[in-house]
Structure formats: structure tokens, C-alpha cells
Design brief:
alpha/beta, Alpha-Beta Plaits, Glucose Oxidase, domain 1, seven-stranded parallel β-sheet, seven-stranded mixed β-sheet, 19 helices, globular, hydrolase, protease, PA_domain, secreted, serine protease
């Protein structure tokens, strides 16, 4: 579940009338004017119930919201929705969307151990007294990663609850896990009661995703950690003494918007400092995006929100969670992998990766090798090539190593299909879209994953050898010090930003490939239901794993700089990020082996130690975001849905364009309508958080075919907290493009003094209209 790429179709309905050919009931999130409640009703919930009773005898309130949103959710027919929308106190109806999950050595790789704790951890007291809110699948509280030894009492600011329920007694919480709630009413309104055979109606995690992400963000130190003997070492989260509050919103049928909004509402009210959200879907306008709406209110309240970019890579325009107030995190590799090579009967060695700790193949023995796409059907078989459940014939695979194509079902489930039909091993081959990116999985039989080119070579070998093809798999355990690293993970979603091309997304990348973290006792490491193995830790990959790295780092930065806003923390992470690997070369793209591009990694890979002292930050206020929405042509009503405040856009539009949001990166998009020369500008304000008396000089690295000027080219600060402005002007010329084509070039604006380097990516996109 953690590693599936979401594919969701969203229905867009807002303040226009709802029309449909049937009276199917669907869940809507209803925004109301908060001040409109008549005094006759003792509570808002009573008011909402009365509003519903006036239009329907069947509709009832699912959730009420009062912290990040004003309103409620209810299941309505189209006609009921239209009647409700006509009420004077109703601002908007937002249709519910179903979201999907985006699914140790990383502290060492990030420079947090050398091998003793660094100043970043010591100076922030390891994140103690900061509260990280995880909106996910819940938690398995008994894991050692959540022990509370050497922790001080629960911070007095905490107002949250530890909700006991089935399989989750009050003793589940402690001084580490200080809050636990679950939200299922939205899910149950559509699907009926929770299936007690597959899930827990409590904060307990039945999937594993939430336990894994929670320990990445704030897991306590655990010695002798490993998965099936792989990745041995000391495990810890980014902020090992930070407190955890979990909000379970994801169930076997998905993560429903009404529940996600309820979790945000509770988390901000409870007093979290950071929200970590490894959940997403396709991109919609911000006023129809519950995550964007809820996170806007959270950020306005001073809560940092980190979100996963999605696993739709390596294709472009795949990034999700793209609102500028969110910190959107892509995934990179670390300097550790798990090689498991294929040795073919012709002597050729094909590199692969795997995590397998069970009975192995006989050393030195070669096994018959077959491709699942041919055989039992006498020709190509699409289902069998993917090793889907029920697609393989035991007569064809028994005693053999089977080549399966990647896609549709989970990678581990393919191995289970091979195993139960008598296969002795599996080679999982990437398709063209997957490229050369490899993910190590905890397989249920001897298996390894190979890239697209290698998969083609193996299939050719099988075809040329007819019935005599043989192979074996050689498992080599854990390898450290891998070079190059980091590399942009193949699955990591890429820009440009589909909703706001003037805002570069993802913002940064962080470790997200083959990450060791805590795992429930209820789920086998492969995630396959028949997997009876149990392990304290598991190794997973996804932007789901990258996101909590940044969430934990944000908690450390918040502990070190309690006066910093969420935007300042994001700026520190972005302007200190790097774009080279441990060989000193430009970061590569795992899917192609070529140099990665700015839409792959945003500002670059996070550098926690440098982010602690960035020198300058680009801060953003709530009113700045409102101006951005105005300049992005959102209507006053849509802006009210997002911000819960009335907006007057006349002044904002006079002030500039949407690219003038004080963002730590700059993105210019030019539409070529026969213009030979084009230009734009960016106005930015930086705040001094470094030395009181400091002088910064600019270095311009212009994108190809552009002329870039910065005025002034020197910024002289006299005190900490001082703000200074500068203007960046970008001039370019028309380029030859086919209709609908585009050209992208990137550079940077770099401010330096004697101690700090403050880098902002500068991206120029040329687009040729279709007409």
C-alpha cells in the first residue's frame, strides 16, 4: 500500500449548482459563515443538524470542523446538495476526494551523526518538547522506536488526547507518543463499518505505513536494528526526542478528505508544531483541495506542514501537494543498497537489488529460467507477464526462476504468485516507464529487481535459448558507501507544478529509497497477507519516506529557532540544499542515469546542518499568500474558501504577478505569441537571521539564452531581523518550438557573505501555444 502510485478521478463542484442524472449520495464538505450561527442553537453542530433537517430526512452530520475550517461534512444527494448550497450561510460545497498513501542510515547520510550527535541535535535538545503530528495509518505503539526513556514530562502546552479503543488501551501512550486519535466517519459513510478482520477501529496501525513514517520523523534510538539481517545499525528518527501525535485517517479503502480535514482540525487545536502528511492525489485548484485548505490554516497558525510529492515519476507534471504554503518533498537515494545479482547461463552478470532473508537458492546451482509472458497461453499473455493473481500455471513455473514484468499489482505480490505456483525464484523487470530505478523489497521467495534495459536483455536471452535458459540469483547483503549518492529516485514525482507553474515543485528532495524504520507486529515485511514473518523494522521506499525526514528536520529547526515561521523554515531548507552527489558531480536521475533537472529535485537535497544557520530567509505572511491567489486569478469567493477571510484583489493585482510571491525559488513562464523579446521580473525580500553586521554580494548563474540582472547587487545588513529587498529582471528571446512544445532552462541567484551561501533556483520555461 505504501508504494502504490495513486490514480484518482476527481469530480469538481463548488459554488455552482450540482447537476446529475441520479440521486446517488456522496459526501460533501460544507463551508459555512462562522459568524452566521443564530443564538438559538447552543452549538455549531446543532445548527448544522438543523440546516440538514430542513432539506432532508436522511442526511446527517459526519464531522464538524472549527479550527482549520468552519463547517461540517455530510452525505448528500445532488438535489440535497443544491438545496443546501442555496442557504445564505453556506459558502461552498467541496466534493470529497479519496487520497492514497505515497509510499538506519539516513541520519548518518544527512550529517546528523559523526558518529556522535552533531551540534544540530545537541543545540536543539534532539527536538525535545516539539510535537510532530502524523496524519497517516496510525501507529504500533509497542515498538522500541516509541519508547520514552530519558524523556521529560509531556509539554504543558499539549492539549491533545490519547483515545483508547479496540486493541489500543490508554497505556499505549507515554511521554513519546503523547497523542493518538482516529477518524473513520468519512470512510464509513461511504463504505460501511470498518472491516474488523483487516483493520483496527482505533489508532493502531494495520498497514505499517504510519508506524514507518512516525519512526522516520521522530523515532527514539534503537540499537541492533535491521530487517531480515539487512541494514544493521542504530536506528533513530530525525528528531529523536520530539513527541509524536498520530491521527489515523487511512483505512484499507483509502484516505477520505472529510477524515483528513477532521485530523488537521484536531492536530492544530491539540497544539502540534509540525504536521507530516505522506498522502496525496491528483492536483485540483486550491479551493477544491482539502489538503491545501487545511494546511493553509495550519501554516497561518504557525504549524509547519510537510507533504510527499507523490510516486508518479519519472514522468513530468506528476507532482502533487503543490500549494505554495506546503513543503513538498521528493525522494532521493542514500549511500546504501542491497545488491542481488542475476547470473545467466551464458555467464552474463546482471545487477539487481533485493531484501531476502529466507531459505535461499542452492549455491552454484543454475535453475531453469522462463518469462511469465509466454508459455501457458502459447503466446503473449498480459496478465501472466505481470504475474497477477491467478495468472500463472504451476506446470509452467514449478521449479523455475520466473521473470515477471513490473506494474498493476504490488512487487511482492508477484513473488507470492510465483511462490504459490511452485516457482523457486523471481526476477522482477522494470518497464520502459520505470527506467533503471530499482527498489529493494522484502520478498517472500528468492527474488531480485532489475532495470528496464536488463529486463530486455534477460528476455532476449530466454528467447534465444528456447528451453535451455538458466539463471541463479546471488544475494550480497548490505553495501555501504555507494557512489554516486544522492540520486533522484526514479519513482519520485516531478514538476512542473500543474496548478501554479510560477511556483517550483517539488521544493526539495530527501532520503526516500530503501529506508529502514519501525514496522508493526501484525504485518509481514512484504505486506503480502500470507507472509507470516515478523520483524521490528522494515525497509520501504517512496516519497512517503522522504516527507517525514523533512518533518523531523523542521522540528529541529523550530526547536533551534522558535520565532521562525513555517515559511522561514522552508526557506532555510531550500536555500541551503545541494545539487551535487558524493562524487562532487551533478546529481543524476536514477531512471535514466543522466544528470537530473530542476523539476526533478526543486532546490536540491536537504542539508540539515547548513539549514540550521542559513544566513538569510525568504519569509511569507498570510497576506502574501492572499496576494498570490489574487494574482493567480482566483475569485474572491474561492479565496474565501481557502483562507476563510474576505479578499480585495484590486491592490494585489496592481502590485505584480503570482511569481512575486516571496518564494525561495523563482520560476518564469513565457508564452511565445510571435514576440521576439520577452522579459519579466521578481521582487524578493530577505530577512537577516545570521550575523548582525553582514554584507551579501550576488552571483548570477543565468539560465541559457537569458540575460539576468539583480538590483541592488549588494545587501548590507546592520542588525538581525532586518529586511532588504532586491529585484531580479529576466530577459529572453524567442526560441524555435513546435506547437504545444516547451523549452526549460535553469540557473540560480546566489547571495554570499563570508559565512553563508543562500541559493535560489531560477527557472525559465518557454512555451509555444498550440494555435
Amino acid at each position: 500500500m505504501a508504494q502504490l502510485v495513486p490514480s484518482i478521478v476527481l469530480v469538481v463542484i463548488l459554488t455552482s449548482r450540482v447537476t446529475c442524472c441520479s440521486e446517488d449520495r456522496k459526501t460533501f464538505i460544507v463551508q459555512v459563515h462562522e459568524e452566521g450561527k443564530p443564538s438559538i442553537f447552543p452549538t455549531h453542530r446543532d445548527w448544522y443538524r438543523s440546516s440538514l433537517s430542513g432539506i432532508s430526512n436522511a442526511a446527517s452530520v459526519i464531522h464538524t470542523y472549527s479550527t482549520v475550517f468552519n463547517g461540517f461534512s455530510a452525505k448528500l444527494s445532488p438535489s440535497e446538495a443544491n438545496k443546501l448550497l442555496s442557504l445564505s450561510h453556506v459558502v461552498a460545497l467541496i466534493p470529497e476526494h479519496i487520497r492514497s498513501l505515497h509510499t538506519t542510515r539516513s541520519p548518518h547520510f544527512l550529517g546528523l551523526t559523526t558518529p556522535s550527535p552533531t551540534a544540530l541535535l545537541l543545540d536543539t535538545h534532539f527536538g525535545s518538547d516539539l510535537v510532530l503530528g502524523l496524519i497517516d495509518t496510525g501507529i504500533w505503539p509497542e515498538r522500541h522506536s516509541f519508547h520514552d526513556r530519558h524523556l521529560s514530562p509531556v509539554p504543558p502546552k499539549w492539549k491533545g488526547l490519547c483515545v483508547s479503543s479496540t486493541g489500543f488501551p490508554p497505556t499505549s501512550c507515554n511521554r513519546k507518543l503523547i497523542g493518538a486519535r482516529f477518524f473513520s466517519s468519512g470512510y464509513e459513510a461511504t463504505n460501511g463499518n470498518i472491516n474488523l478482520t483487516t483493520d483496527f477501529p482505533s489508532p493502531r496501525d494495520s498497514d505499517g505505513h504510519g508506524t514507518h513514517t512516525a519512526s522516520i520523523a521522530a523515532g527514539s534510538y534503537v540499537s541492533s536494528a535491521s530487517t531480515l539481517g539487512y541494514a544493521k545499525g542504530i536506528a533513530s528518527g530525525m528528531a529523536p526526542k520530539a513527541r509524536l501525535a498520530v491521527y489515523k485517517v487511512c483505512w484499507n479503502g483509502g484516505c477520505y478528505d472529510s477524515d483528513i480535514l477532521a485530523a488537521f482540525d484536531a492536530a492544530v487545536s491539540d497544539g502540534v508544531d509540525v504536521v507530516s502528511l505522506s498522502v496525496g492525489g491528483v492536483v485540483v485548484p486550491y479551493h477544491l483541495d482539502v489538503i491545501a485548505i487545511a494546511s493553509f490554516a495550519a501554516v497561518s497558525a504557525g504549524v509547519f506542514v510537510s507533504s510527499s510529492a507523490g510516486n508518479g515519476g519519472p514522468g513530468g507534471l506528476t507532482v502533487t501537494n503543490v500549494a505554495p504554503w506546503l513543503t513538498t518533498v521528493g525522494a532521493g537515494t542514500i549511500d546504501r543498497d542491497f545488491p542481488a545479482d542475476v547470473k545467466l547461463g551464458n555467464g552474463k552478470i546482471i545487477p539487481g537489488v533485493s531484501i531476502y532473508g529466507g531459505p535461499g537458492l542452492t549455491p552454484g546451482r543454475m535453475y531453469p529460467l522462463v518469462y511469465a509472458g509466454v508459455g501457458q497461453f502459447g503466446g503473449d499473455g498480459y496478465s501472466s507477464s505481470l504475474c497477477l493473481e491467478g495468472s500463472l500455471d504451476p506446470k509452467f513455473v514449478k521449479g523455475k526462476i520466473v521473470v515477471c514484468d513490473r506494474g498493476i499489482n504490488s512487487r511482492a505480490a508477484k513473488g507470492e504468485e510465483v511462490r504459490k505456483n511452485g516457482g523457486v525464484g523471481m526476477i522482477l523487470a522494470n518497464g520502459v516507464f520505470d527506467g533503471e530505478g530499482l527498489v529493494a523489497d522484502c520478498h517472500v521467495l528468492p527474488a531480485t529487481a532489475v532495470g528496464a534495459t536488463a529486463g530486455d536483455e534477460i528476455r532476449r536471452y530466454i528467447g534465444n535459448s528456447r528451453s535451455t535458459a538458466t539463471a541463479t540469483i546471488v544475494f550480497k547483503g548490505t553495501r555501504l558507501g555507494v557512489r554516486p549518492a544522492p540520486v533522484v529516485a526514479s519513482f519520485s514525482a516531478r514538476g512542473p507544478n500543474p496548478e501554479s507553474p510560477e511556483i517550483l515543485k517539488p521544493d526539495v528532495i530527501a532520503p526516500g529509497l530503501n529506508i529502514l524504520a519501525a514496522w508493526p507486529d501484525h504485518v509481514g515485511p512484504s505486506g503480502v497477507p500470507s507472509d507470516g514473518r515478523r520483524t521490528e523494522f522494515n525497509i520501504l521506499s517512496g516519497t512517503s519516506m522522504a516527507c517525514p525526514h523533512v518533518s523531523g528536520l523542521a522540528a529541529l529547526l523550530k526547536a533551534a529557532h522558535p520565532d521562525w515561521s513555517p515559511a522561514a523554515i522552508k526557506s532555510a531548507l531550500m536555500t541551503t540544499a545541494y545539487t551535487v552527489d558524493n562524487k562532487g558531480d551533478p546529481m543524476l536521475d536514477e531512471s535514466t542515469g543522466n544528470v537530473s533537472l530542476v523539476f526533478d529535485f526543486g532546490a536540491g537535497h536537504v542539508h540539515p546542518v547548513k539549514a540550521m544557520n542559513p544566513g538569510l530567509v525568504y519569509d511569507i505572511s498570510t497576506s502574501d499568500y492572499v496576494n498570490f491567489l489574487c494574482n493567480s486569478n482566483y475569485t474572491p469567493n474561492s479565496i474565501h474558501v481557502i483562507t476563510r477571510k474576505s479578499a480585495n484583489c484590486s491592490g494585489a493585482k496592481k502590485a505584480g504577478h503570482s511569481g512575486n510571491l516571496n518564494y525561495p525559488s523563482m520560476s518564469a513562464v513565457f508564452q511565445q505569441y510571435g514576440k521576439k523579446r520577452m522579459s519579466t521580473h521578481f521582487i524578493r525580500t530577505v530577512t537577516n537571521v545570521g550575523d548582525p553586521n553582514s554584507v551579501y554580494k550576488v552571483t548570477i548563474k543565468p539560465p541559457a539564452r537569458t540575460v539576468v540582472t539583480v538590483k541592488p547587487d549588494t545587501l548590507t545588513f546592520k542588525r538581525v531581523g532586518q529586511k532588504l529587498n532586491f529585484l531580479v529582471r529576466v530577459q529572453t528571446r524567442e526560441v524555435k518550438l513546435s506547437p504545444g512544445g516547451s523549452s526549460v532552462n535553469s540557473g540560480s541567484i546566489v547571495w554570499t557573505d563570508s559565512k553563508h551561501t543562500v541559493t535560489s533556483p531560477l527557472v525559465v520555461t518557454m512555451q509555444q501555444p498550440l494555435d
